[in-house]
Every structure is written in C-alpha cells, then in structure tokens.
Amino acid sequence: MLKSEYLQHVYTQVVTRDPDQREFHQAVLEVLESLDLIVDQHPEYEKHGIIETFVEPERMISFRVPWVDDNGQVHVNRGYRIQFSSAIGPYKGGLRFHPTVNLSILKFLGFEQILKNSLTGLPMGGAKGGADFDPKGKSDAEVMRFCQSFMTELNRHIGQFVDVPAGDIGVGGREIGYMFGQYRRIRGSYDAGVLTGKGLSFGGSLVRTEATGYGLCYLTAEMLKAMKGESFDGKTVVISGSGNVAIFATEKAAQLGGKVVALSDSNGYIHDPNGVNLDVVKDIKLGRRGRIKEYVDAVPGSTYTEGFRGIWNVPCDVALPCATQNEIDEEIAKTIVKNGAIAVAEGANMPCRPEAIRVFQEAGLLFAPAKAANAGGVATSGLEMSQNSMRYAWPFEEVDRRLKDIMTTIFHNAYNASVECGVPGDLVVGANIAGFKKVADVMLAQGLI
User: Fold this and answer.
1) Which positions are catalytic residues (predicted)?
2) Domain containing 317: what range?
C-alpha cells in the first residue's frame, strides 16, 4: 500500500485511465512503492507533476501492417511504437513480434526501459514497440514481406537522433536486416545508427548477440561477490528459456565456473545433471530453430518434461529466469527457496510476480530485478550506436570489457541507492530510485513538464 497521498493519486489515475492494462499497472506500482521512500524529501516532484509526467508516454503510435503470405493471401496485423521518454537521449528500446503483443505489455516494457537505460549511464531514453505477428512457422520470404510493410510505416517515426529500435522476442538479426534494408530503400541514405542489433557486415557490434546473457551473469557475479562473498564457481544454475538470453547466460555462467543443469522453452524443460551441453542447444535453437525436447535425443542421461514452469522444481544455487514476464509466482518462489537457492536475477523482463519477489526477499535471497540485471542488451546497443557515430568497430574484447564495466556499475549504483534509502541490499528499490532520480533531475532541468 502506498503511503504518499500524491503517489496514491498518481496510481489511481493510471488505473482509471487504462483499467485493462494490468502489466503496465504492475510495473508502475512497483516503481511507485520504491519512490514512496523518497517522495516526501522531494516536494518538487509533486509541485512540477514530475511523476504524473513520468508514467505517461510522450507518444503512442499504432498502425496496421498488411502483408502477403506465400500463397498470395493478404493478412493484416497491428504495429505499435510507444515512445515513452526522451529526457536523457533519443528513444531506445526493442521491437517485439509475438501474438501476445498489446498496448499494456508494450507500455510496461517501455516504462521499464526508461529506468533500465538510465541505469546504464548512456544517453538513451525509453521506448518499446512491435506487432502481434508471429514469425514462427513463417518462411523467410513471409517474414521479409512483413518486416518491409512494418518499416514502411515505422520509418517516419524513427531516426538515429530520434528513436533507435532494436530486437526483442521474435526479432533477431534476420528481422533487423530486413527492416534496415527497407528503411534505407525508403530514405535513400545509409543511416546505420537508426537500428541496433544489425549484422556485423553493416554496422552491427560484436557482443550484441551475447550481451543480455553475458550482462546478466556479470551483474549476478558482482552481486554474489559484494553481498555474500560468493561467486559462480561450483554453483548449480537453472535458467528458464532457451533463446539468445538463456543461451549466452548459460555460456557465461559456465565460463565463470557455474554448472547450468536445466533450460526450457514454451512447451517444457530439459534437465541434464551433468551440465547442459551448450553446443547441442545452440545447434537446436540457433541452427535449426527447433524445440528444446530434441536435446534428450542427442545427450544420454538428460530428461525432458512437459510444462515449462516445472523447471523451477529442479534444485539450484542460482536461478536466472530468462523466459517471459510473470513466469514465477508465489508458490514457485517458495519452491526455489525450499530447494536452497541463494540468488535470483531476472534475465527476462519482469519474470517474477511481486508476491514472488517478496518471498525471495523475506527468505534472505539475493534478488536482482530485470531493469538492472538484463540491461546488458541495451547497454551494448548503446555501444553500437557509439560505434556507428564514429564509423568504427571495436574488437570483441573491448566491447565485452565495456559491458562488464557497465553491469558492475549498475549493480553498485543500485546497491548504493538502497543503502541511502535505508533498505540496504534491496536492489528493486535501489534500481528504481537510482534510475528515476537521474531522469527526474533532467526533466526538472529541461522544464519537461
């Protein structure tokens, strides 16, 4: 329950305006609960309507996306771009192609992106976008035609100094390539900085593919070291999902000495007590776009179980949820605690429900929220933007070093903010306040009210 009448008013207004946007309400309430600790010390926030402004997107764009399948049939999807905040830099955030995409999900993601981008220390605002298009089962030609139609409308709303989209669920290098080609065709100029996540041959950055998974492990490692005197070395790790984030979190966790024993997809999960064979997973998921159950055919001693949430029954020391929002509820959280975990860090966006986070915190587990823990992807996107501006490409080791430094700094900024607010170690509060204060100060300085 919010103690501040001002924050109660803001939250009531959010819910009243958009009563069906539950994911957005959840994201806003979590941030307001953190701000409850400091709002009385900052009367300027209420005087200038800073928080009311902060929770309302600067611009919401929706449009139709007609495209033709391989049989000549016309389909029409909905496209969106939520440009939430440009206070500290051009809008920055991914594009998601998935049947579940709607305004509530994109507003929650765009809202979180403001804080995430602020925490990186790079000059990037917050945005999110996408379409209710499902690329699964579509041919390359169908995906290309959809992406070209999508960009035909989106191009007028973006630019390297205006809004720089990237990939998200359902949008990888293939989709970014198709969209960049269409943008270039329409605009007649080579604006490499308009999209990130590009191929290396046309302005992409090394480490971008690995960045979110690597960054998740870098922050988790720093959290373990600073708050518990521990490391990944010898730890059993469970990672939900088997996309880019999960795959490269698995790779980095193993490099840091951990043993990843389980991965999942939307149908079920594999358990390999000897440690997941990442080469097999990469072949299935990145090479053939297959299903995770194919793993057991290639690796003796492993098992597959239907139902992806069951993965959290596998005991572990470190839990890294990297699948989707709200996958861990209160009961699953209790199971993770009971099975002996010491740390949880969010690789997906908001994979833990609020009641699950409370279970972790009350049990004394280390917990890193997504806006801090999975900021590695957008951090490296920011580094890609820098390289595009310089017409130069850093080597892998340079980008990786910068990524590690950014993630380490994010942890310490969030931790230090939690100490200053009287809740040392509460990284949810720390990340929210550290991210918000930077943006709020800029809004006040620029008169963005």
Assistant:
1) 128
2) 211-373
Catalytic option among 3, 47, 107, 128: 128
CB 168 within 8 A of CB 82: no
Asked if 79 contacts 97 with a C-beta cutoff of 8 angstroms, the reply is: no
* Residue 338 bears catalytic tag: no
Predicted confidence (pLDDT) per residue in 243-275, tens digit: 999 999 999 999 999 999 999 999 999 999 999
Query: How far is it, in rounded angstroms, from Cα 256 to Cα 260?
Result: 11
* Coil, helix or strand at residue 36: coil
Annotated binding site for substrate: 92, 113, 116, 167, 381
- Residue 206 falls inside a structural domain: no
From the annotation, which residues make up the binding site?
92, 113, 116, 167, 212, 244, 381
402 within some domain: no
**Is residue 144 a part of any domain in this protein?**
yes
**Are residues 310 and 176 located together in one domain of the fold?**
no
Which amino acids are annotated as binding site for NAD(+), given as ranges? 212, 244
Contact in structure between 65 and 97 (CB atoms under 8 Å): no
**E strands along 249-404, which residues?**
259-264, 268-271, 303-306, 318-321, 343-345, 366-368
Domain tally, the chain: 3
pLDDT digits (tens, 9 = 90+) for 112-159: 999 999 999 999 999 999 999 999 999 999 999 999 999 999 999 999
Please report, for the domain that includes residue 123, its CATH number.
3.40.50.10860
- One DSSP character per residue, 225-255 reads HHHHS--STT-EEEEE--SHHHHHHHHHHHH
Pair (49, 97) in one structural domain: no
- pLDDT tens digits, one per residue of 306-356: 999 999 999 999 999 999 889 999 999 999 999 999 999 999 988 999 999
Indicate whether this model's pTM tops 0.85: yes
